[in-house]
Amino acid sequence: RVTFQPGLYYIQNGGLSVGSQSSIVGIEVTLFFADSNSTSTFSIQGGASAQLTPPTDGYTKGLTVFFHRGNSSNVTITGGGNLQIYGSLYMRDATVTLGGNGRMIAGSQI
Q: How far apart are CA 88 and CA 28, in angstroms?
């Protein structure tokens, strides 16, 4: 289990993949996928889980996930993956795939 402390996380050159029954928890975090191409991906697979909430103040208040405007990567939740996310998700050019018993609970704007 990985726990993110509150704050902004700058993700570049590879993305974030959670799998094999692992889990991540991030309370009051913003994940910024910085690549302008398709190299920054986000996936929850293989029975993994993620629970994410946005900051309650500051310049990223209410924003949980932000993909660079030119990033057309996939956001994938499959194979029993479980994503519980709150706040806004900005993924203008990305494709969100939910399948293979993947589950997403979103109290969010996508």
A: 12
- The verdict on pTM exceeding 0.90 is no
| Region at 13 (left for phi over 0; alpha for psi -120 to 50; beta for the rest) | left
pLDDT tens-place string over residues 69-88: 888 887 877 777 777 888 98
pLDDT at 107 over 70: no
**82-to-10, 15, 58, 60 alpha-carbon distances in Å:** 22, 18, 28, 24
Tokens found for residue 105: 């609970």
Give the β-pairing of 49-52 and 29-33.
unpaired
